[in-house]
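job 3f2a | input accepted
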Amino acid sequence: MKRNIVIATLTAAALVTGGTVAAFAAGDDDTTAQRQTSAGAQVIADRDDADDVNDRDDADDAKDDDRTATADGDVTAAEAIAAALKHTPDTAVSADVDDDGADAGTWDVDVVKGDGAEYSVKVAPDSGKVLGAHRDTDDDNDSEDRAELAALKGAEFDAREIAKAAAAKGTVTEVGVDDDNGTVAWSVETVKNNVTSDWKGALDTGKLTQDQDD
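job 3f2a | predicted structure (214 res):
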């Protein structure tokens, strides 16, 4: 009889102990699952943060690409042309950004006088201040040049005005003259979203047409 009681007691104790162990095991599983869930959420959050940083970096790179395609400052092509004409009045025939030498990054505006003399006017990209001007002795001022100049002098839209109009298409990086079989028009280069586009601008109306030749 006593032996039966002892066996029953040991069996009950084993059941209680086993239940406690099972309870602990179940608790450990829940804790582990919670820890794994928290760790997984943290990894996802870290990845999202990294993606946000990368997106911002990509956006900054895109802005930098657009910026380096123009002068190293906030002065637009139209403003550079206006500053050059104030310093050296007459007819502006082109404007672009120097890409090499000591003047790299500055606006270079070409102005032609009534006698055909051409001057190169340098404009600071950050302040719009004229840095200097010199006569371009390399220009031969041939009959084609004279015909283009005559057309520009009678134009309703000058270089500054066509640059302002083209700004609606993107950042203006270059303005020049295009002579297509005797038809003179403005040629304009713009950059938008890292894409470079070429345009022809009518001298009389300022209407811009994308140049598909390039």
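job 3f2a | The radius of gyration is 37 Å.
job 3f2a | closed
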